Amino acid sequence: MADRTLNVMCICGSLRRGSYNRMVMNALPGLAPAGMNITEAPPFSEFPLYNADEEASGFPPPVQRLADAVRAADGVIFNSPEYNFSIPGGLKNAIDWVSRVPNQPFAGKPVALQSAANGTLGGGRMQYDLRRAMIFLDAMTLSKPEIFIGNCSTRIDAKTGEITDQQTVGFIRQQLAAFAKFIVQHGPRP
Ligand SMILES: Cc1cc2nc3c(=O)[nH]c(=O)nc-3n(C[C@H](O)[C@H](O)[C@H](O)COP(=O)(O)O)c2cc1C
Asked: How far is the CA of 81 from the centre of ligand 1 (A)?
């Protein structure tokens, strides 16, 4: 595997207390391969709505913090629900702001996608749109394995936050192992 620690940062697309996607995100350090360190991104909950006029007077500090953290990470994982068949508005707003920071930090960045949703498709339509946004930003998005946790309330224990469905746990382990290799192959050397 990697000859160095891979620092991976997760961006959770849900602001909800008790979010299933946050539960999945919180489980990742325990499912990561040796040498992968997984932490949570600085929050985007305080971002204003993107407005070019505000950008002209400087980037808000929370935007700069998230942009700096994306830049510093060896890889980024999005853990996000699907809202109305697409990217949750708050997350899209965060990506829009970060994309405006000079020398935008998603360029060349290894990215992996995970989604949990109550629908049977598990957020697949959201991932399609998120992939497209990452293409525009020149990120390197892992193709496979894909993680769509459909009917998430039956696979994750809302009380304990544990992923109870062992097949899902196995898929996540496989994706994280693949992501480690992907980062080594495609990510910039430090
Ligand atoms: C505004 C809104 C739109 C939603 N749209 C979808 C959808 O398009 N597809 C889907 O599977 N679930 C949809 N849901 C249900 C979410 O999958 C469910 O609320 C999920 O638990 C949200 O993720 P979270 O637990 O991480 O907050 C929607 C929920 C909200 C609040």
From this structure: 6
* C-alpha torsion sign, points 129, 135, 137, 141: positive
Q: Is the CB of 19 under 6 A from ligand 1?
A: yes
Tell me, rounded to whole angstroms, the distance of Cα 29 from its chain centroid. Answer: 14
Determine whether the shortest distance from the Cβ of 127 to ligand 1 is under 6 A. Answer: no
Q: H or E stretch including 127?
A: helix 124-136
CB neighbour class for 96 (10 Å; exposed up to 12, middle 13-18, buried from 19): middle
Q: pLDDT tens digit string along 92-140?
A: 999 999 999 999 999 999 999 999 999 999 999 999 999 999 999 999 9
Rounded distance between C-alpha atoms, residue 76 and residue 104, angstroms: 14
Beta-carbon contacts of 48 under 8 Å, excluding residues fewer than 6 positions away, are: 54, 60
Q: How far, in Å, is the centroid of ligand 1 from the Cα of 89? A: 12
